[in-house]
Every structure is written in structure tokens, then in C-alpha cells.
Write a structure and sequence with these properties.
143 residues, TolA/TonB C-terminal domain, three-stranded antiparallel sheet, alpha+beta, 3 strands
Length: 143
């Protein structure tokens, strides 16, 4: 019987501090929707590949699949802001290639409803005077 061999990783790869969740938060906090994309209501995903050196710095950024309207440039700008943890690999200098997708999505939050109304008093119907009927009572007292 063959034993399953464990794969050994001899080189450490750079990790974003805080993991994937922190990466998404960083991108969401620093991403600015380009005005041209807002005007044209452009949404989509920009595929970016970049290299991170052993000091954790992003050295080369390339858009592999873009959507245009300024979104590609904005995705590259945000990726250049990233800082990864430095990696020590027993004296070996290592540059890692990383691929990521940055999504541009317009806010789809429901617009708050606004109501406007004008209050106009309704005219009171004019009183129609009924013809006054005269009633008379006659009381006779007998002594």
C-alpha cells in the first residue's frame, strides 16, 4: 500500500495581514468609483494580477480583464496601496504572483421613499335652508 505523501512547502508566501476578509475590507474602504463609470452606470469585475516581493511590497500590477471607463485604473491604484507581511525564506529572495478580482457595483440600496402632499381645505357645503314650517299649538284649559 502506498502512503499519501504530504506536500511540503519549503517557501513561505506573503499573506495579507488579516486574511481575505481584511483584504476585501481594505479594497472596499479605498475604492473610489470613477466618475465616468458612474455617469454611464458601468458595473463589472476587473481581474488584476500583481507581484509581491519578499518585503511585502506590490511591485508590478497588470489588468488581465478589464471593463474600462476608469475602473481598470482605479483597480490598479488600489492594488498598489496593498502591503503584505514580509516573508523570510532562509535567504532566498522570492517574488510571488497573485491574482485577484475587484468588483465595481453601483449601490443597489432601495431609494428612500419621499412623499409630498399639499393640504387644501375642502369647502364646506353650503347649508341649504329648509323652509321653516310654522307649527302652532293651541292649548285650551277648561275651568
Amino acid at each position: 500500500m502506498k502512503k499519501n505523501k504530504k506536500t511540503k512547502e519549503f517557501l513561505n508566501l506573503p499573506q495579507f495581514p488579516g486574511g481575505k476578509t481584511a483584504f476585501r475590507e481594505f479594497v472596499a474602504n479605498n475604492l473610489k468609483y470613477p466618475p465616468e463609470a458612474l455617469q454611464n452606470k458601468i458595473e463589472g469585475k476587473v481581474h488584476v494580477s500583481f507581484e509581491v516581493n519578499d518585503n511585502g511590497e506590490v511591485v508590478e500590477v497588470e489588468v488581465t480583464k478589464g471593463i474600462g471607463y476608469g475602473c481598470d485604473e482605479e483597480a490598479m491604484r488600489v492594488v498598489r496601496l496593498l502591503r503584505y507581511d514580509a516573508v523570510k525564506n532562509r535567504g532566498v529572495r522570492l517574488t510571488s504572483s497573485i491574482k485577484s478580482i475587484i468588483e465595481f457595483k453601483l449601490n443597489q440600496a432601495p431609494q428612500p421613499l419621499s412623499y409630498s402632499y399639499v393640504a387644501t381645505p375642502t369647502p364646506k357645503p353650503e347649508k341649504q335652508e329648509k323652509p321653516k314650517e310654522k307649527f302652532g299649538y293651541t292649548i285650551k284649559l277648561n275651568h
